[in-house]
Specification:
14% strand, Butyryl-CoA Dehydrogenase, subunit A, domain 3, globular, Butyryl-CoA Dehydrogenase, subunit A, domain 2, alpha+beta, 3 domains, 11 helices, Butyryl-Coa Dehydrogenase, subunit A, domain 1, 392 residues
Length: 392
């Protein structure tokens, strides 16, 4: 099935998938090319989310392939990794929307929720009738949110009352359910809650003037005497260690999106190099341009190799926190190089949105920062290889 491989998959990693998953991946690729790609630049320029695409995503049946559910066995971790790559290759914003919904929000409920809680929310989230968001980062707490979380929760009879704020919450303006983390005032432990849209005391406000992942609707969330039923506290979400169970898995997903962003930039740069003529011939015939393309492909290939191994380790439940951290930090750092070289290849034309590359260039910045900055992930790796903690 080599005819189904992406040309930029230079070592043919996709061929590690069984034939049925390769065919499913190609169907996703065709869906994204026909239904999503024509909408991408206009949505990005307007910083608006194309809500009419949600039913089409649901019909394409791409959500929840990482989970065993309702008689449908889960796909391989390698397949769901390539799924994130394909989404990000076309539009990192859409990859982030899907990743937040199915990886962070659904993932939190699947990992930390009881059987009853999973039955309550997951089926409609699978069908994309209920959209999820994930509320961890705070206005004054990003990298240090584990220690410095200011959002609080207090038990009051058969309810919990939340007070505080969250920031940079993807899907936050329109999500039907938001997984929210708050510090219990009684035991000082971080607990996990599901807050439903329309709950009194819960307000979501769009963050304006954002110039990366512009289609993603990031929000400031505030909770003021926000009362939710006790059954909305996820049963197994009782400490920050529980939060990390979710983040370890999703960091791998961000790494895959980082590969896709690189790959998308490389593909448009390669096509441009073959078409753009200067001095009477395609610029792709010049040594300096071929050097840029080879360096880009090297980054893509090295990053893809690392993420493939991440998925293989996930498949046997052997992925460690430090391995996930290294993959996320390495791939997104290489991503910044790749998209910069791609934009360089375009010259002045690289800053025009219709040529796509400036969108990948800008979006790579968000991937580089969220789900743990490079520096914080480096400290996780450094602690592992030295046995010494450099955290403050």
């Amino acid at each position: 099935m080599t005819d189904l491989l992406l040309p930029a998959d230079f070592f043919g990693f996709q061929s590690l998938l069984p034939d049925d998953e390769q065919k499913e991946l190609v169907a996703l690729r065709e869906f994204l090319e026909s239904e999503v790609k024509p909408r991408v630049n206009a949505a990005w320029a307007a910083a608006e989310f194309p809500h009419d695409l949600i039913p089409k995503f649901a019909e394409a049946d791409i959500v929840g392939r990482a989970y065993d559910w309702d008689g449908r066995p889960r796909a391989s971790r390698l397949f769901t990794g390539f799924q994130a790559l394909e989404l990000s290759r076309v539009d990192p914003s859409m990859a982030t929307f899907i990743g937040v919904h199915q990886g962070l929000a659904m993932g939190s409920i699947m990992v930390l929720g009881s059987k009853e809680q999973r039955q309550r929310w997951i089926p409609s989230m699978m069908r994309m009738q209920t959209i999820g968001a994930f509320g961890l980062t705070e206005p004054e707490g990003g990298s240090d949110v584990a220690r410095g979380m200011r959002t609080t929760a207090r038990r009051d009879g058969d309810s919990w009352v939340l007070d505080g704020a969250k920031r940079w919450i993807g899907n936050g303006t329109f999500a039907d359910v938001v997984v929210v983390f708050a510090r219990d005032v009684d035991d000082d432990q971080v607990k996990t809650f599901v807050v439903e849209k329309g709950t009194p005391g819960f307000v979501a406000t769009k963050i304006e003037d954002k110039f990366s992942l512009r289609t993603v609707q990031n929000a400031d969330l505030t909770f003021t005497d926000c009362r939710i039923p006790a059954e909305n506290k996820l049963e197994d979400g009782n400490t920050f260690k529980d939060v990390n169970k979710v983040l370890k898995v999703t960091r791998g997903g961000v790494a895959w999106s980082g590969v896709g962003c690189q790959l998308g930039a490389y593909e448009v740069a390669l096509a441009y190099a073959k078409e753009r003529e200067q001095f009477g011939k395609p610029i792709g015939s010049f040594q300096l341009i071929q050097d840029l393309l080879a360096r880009m492909l090297g980054n893509v290939t090295a990053s893809l190799g690392m993420t493939v191994r991440v998925s293989q380790l996930q498949e046997v439940d052997a992925l460690r926190d430090d391995q996930a951290a290294l993959a996320k930090s390495y791939v997104t750092a290489r991503g910044r190089e790749t998209v910069a070289w791609a934009r360089e290849l375009f010259g002045g034309n690289g800053i025009v949105l219709e040529n796509d590359v400036i969108r990948f260039f800008a979006d790579a910045e968000a991937l580089y920062s969220y789900e743990g900055t490079r520096q914080m992930n480096t400290l996780i790796v450094g602690r592992s290889i030295t046995g010494l903690s450099a955290f403050v």
